[in-house]
UniProtKB/TrEMBL annotation:
Record carries keyword Repeat: yes
Pfam family, one: PPR_long
PPR repeats: 134-168, 208-242
Limits of the PROP1-like PPR domain: 132-293
Protein's recorded name: AGAP006051-PA
Biased composition (Basic and acidic residues): 660-676
Organism: Anopheles gambiae
Molecular-function annotations in GO: mRNA binding
Length: 676
């Protein structure tokens, strides 16, 4: 009996143990099979998890792949914020403007040279208003970027146009090529022009006259003259209208070639005569710029070009408005065709040779400007080296005015200013030009007198340069910042520099680094250490940033001083050694302090130039500063420069070079008088 009771109790205990064991365990699957891992069935509330959330998520001992719940990050996602802002901040109906109103905003910013603000109208304002821009808005922005040479942004806007599936018009291509032409980086501009031209060919777009002119301008200014001339030939082949504007762009292309540009300009000029296209005022101004900046190239090829021009002018009947081949007479018609052809060919050859000989043997001044050119008494082209020599090939300034009258082009003050740059650097030539201005009753601006001051300063006639101030006063004009800049070229001493700076202060004109750089150039040329040191102190005091020419002047001056210092070390008893050593050591100490203040200490010239150089496009990435002059008075920016008559200038008071050479000193020169 007791045995049965004992077995019954044993079975109950085993059953209770198995039930409790199942309640306190769970089955886990592993790569090795199954095993039982005991856990607490009801853990105490105060017990903490001994492993991190990361371990719980990746532990092989835990069943399932769901990670434990983690707290949300403190920093919200940027995309979520934008989405929330887009859904909540819906613009009011009155906030949106019309297409024309957005365009007017863009035009107003571009008119005042606020490129960044104009771009923000499309990139910020219209996006906030949830208005889709049209191609007219993009064309305005591309044209504005093109005018200031911001080619990178212009092409980015062009790509956005294509992404928005907007129509690309001919005006768009014209503006893009203009951006390439005005780009400060010629290589980048040429690359973009080639890519754009390939896109036009792939799309099968046929350029119009404006597109061709813009392409000629772009390739010409980027130095690709061959492509520019090929584009003109392409226009002829397509029978498009070729006018004066096209040839003006070709003349701009010639200006970009400093070595052969004048020779190319002569060919372009006489091509205009043969095509019976009359040049305008801008054509003459561009030709005079070629005279100033460009050379003839190798003499042998130039001689062949001039002979070609003379021959073609004779064969083309001198550019007269008559048919190139005259109708044959009745007697000639009655002859046989073979005899007629032979006799006409012989007659044309004889006449051409005779006229060519007469042109080559013509006595007097050469004339390669008119439709009937000749070389006059010119002996050798090797004598043509200076701008005044190249002007003489065109017949001189008097022949330029005569040709302008023949073509119906009236000269303006810009033409006179271009002529002032290429006439001989003498008082007689300048006096004659002033007389011509009075005869033509032209009104002068301050730019003309600035060039006159510079011309006299460059021939070291500093007293004559100061005399121009009396001309400016007589013409009822006021000096501008450029006037003080060219006057600074003549400041040979500290006293003269101080006098000019005082004059600027009285006129309420703030000095700039260009004016101080001109003074520094004079101080370095005179090897005046105290003069150079004073300029450095002014730059430091006025908090001006040195530019590339300023640093180059200092670098060159340093090399000259080091060379002179070595010469004194080689000859210790040479006169002036002690004074030079003392001044030079003081200058080096002050230069080192100035470099340290400017953040240029210990840098080579290339490294320093990399710091002071400003990227030409940085100004378009920031909004215009508050208080900018153009913002306070927008109309002042577009106001034309003042132009006044010089009738009160007594031209006769200007002494000729012969009179000045007869023992007269420059400091005793007469002041320009006023004619009453």
């Amino acid at each position: 009996m007791s045995f049965i009771i004992l077995n019954t109790l044993r079975r109950q205990c085993v059953s209770q143990f198995r039930t409790r064991l199942l309640q306190q365990s769970f089955l886990t699957t592993t790569s090795r099979g199954f095993y039982i891992a005991p856990i607490a069935f009801a853990p105490k509330p105060h017990q903490k998890d001994e492993f991190s959330h990361l371990e719980a998520a990746h532990s092989p001992d835990q069943f399932g792949t769901l990670s434990p719940q983690v707290d949300e990050p403190e920093t919200p996602d940027e995309g979520d914020l934008k989405e929330e802002d887009f859904l909540q901040n819906i613009p009011a109906p009155g906030q949106k403007l019309s297409v024309r109103q957005y365009a007017d905003l863009i035009k107003d910013h571009l008119k005042n040279n606020r490129i960044r603000e104009a771009l923000d109208v499309v990139e910020v304002r219209m996006k906030q208003d949830r208005v889709k821009p049209v191609n007219y808005h993009f064309n305005l922005l591309i044209g504005g970027c093109a005018r200031v040479g911001y080619s990178k942004k212009a092409f980015q806007l062009y790509n956005k146009m294509k992404q928005h599936d907007l129509k690309v018009t001919g005006g768009t291509y014209t503006s893009l090529f203009n951006a390439c032409a005005v780009s400060p980086f010629l290589g980048d501009g040429l690359k973009r022009a080639n890519q754009l031209r390939e896109i036009m060919l792939e799309k099968g777009y046929e350029p119009n006259e404006s597109n061709y002119n813009a392409m000629i301008k772009a390739y010409g200014r980027c130095g690709e003259l061959k492509t520019a001339f090929q584009l003109v030939d392409e226009m002829v082949a397509r029978r498009l209208s070729i006018g004066t504007d096209t040839f003006n762009f070709l003349l701009q292309a010639c200006i970009s070639d400093r070595e052969y540009g004048f020779r190319h300009a002569l060919l372009v000029w006489h091509r205009m005569h043969r095509m019976r296209i009359s040049p305008d005022r801008y054509s003459f101004n561009l030709l005079l710029r070629c005279v100033r900046d460009c050379q003839l190239g190798d003499l042998e090829t130039t001689q062949q070009v001039i002979e070609q021009i003379l021959s073609e002018s004779i064969g083309g009947n001198g550019g007269k408005q008559v048919p190139a081949i005259e109708e044959p007479s009745i007697e000639a018609v009655e002859r046989s065709e073979e005899d007629n052809a032979e006799q006409q060919q012989k007659l044309a050859t004889i006449v051409t040779n005779r006229e060519l000989t007469e042109r080559l043997n013509h006595e007097g001044v050469p004339d390669l400007l008119s439709p009937q050119p000749h070389l006059g008494s010119l002996v050798r082209l090797g004598e043509v080296r200076k701008p005044e020599d190249r002007l003489l090939l065109l017949g001189g300034s008097s022949n330029v005015f005569a040709e302008m009258r023949r073509c119906g082009a009236e000269p303006d003050i810009r033409t006179i200013t271009e002529l002032l740059d290429v006439i001989p650097s003498t008082y007689a030539a300048e006096k004659q030009l002033l007389v011509t201005i009075k005869q033509l009753k032209l009104r002068c601006d301050i730019d003309f007198f600035n060039i006159l001051i510079k011309k006299r300063s460059m021939r070291f006639d500093y007293e004559g340069a100061k005399d121009v101030l009396y001309m400016i006063e007589a013409a009822n004009l006021e000096p501008d910042i450029v006037t003080y800049g060219v006057l600074a070229l003549g400041c040979q001493t500290q006293e003269e520099a101080r006098s000019l700076l005082k004059m600027m202060h009285e006129a309420d004109v703030r000095m700039n680094i260009q004016i101080l750089g001109a003074m520094l150039r004079q101080g370095c040329a005179k090897q005046n250490f105290r003069y150079v040191t004073e300029i450095l102190q002014i730059v430091k005091r006025e908090r001006l940033k040195p530019n590339e020419p300023f640093l180059r002047h200092l670098e060159e001056f340093g090399r000259v001083c080091e060379k002179r210092d070595r010469e004194y070390d080689a000859k210790p008893r040479k006169r002036g050694r002690d004074e030079f050593k003392q001044e030079y050591n003081r200058y080096r100490m002050q230069l080192d302090a100035w470099r340290e203040h400017m953040g240029l200490q210990g840098l080579a010239l290339d490294q320093a130039l990399g710091i002071v150089r400003e990227h030409p496009w940085e100004q378009f990435k920031e909004p215009q500063a508050e208080g900018y002059e153009a913002v306070k008075n927008p109309k002042l920016r577009h106001k034309r420069k003042k132009q006044h008559s010089i009738r009160r200038v007594d031209v006769e008071a200007i002494e000729d070079d012969d009179d000045r050479g007869q023992g007269k000193e420059h400091d005793q020169a007469k002041e320009v008088k006023l004619a009453h």
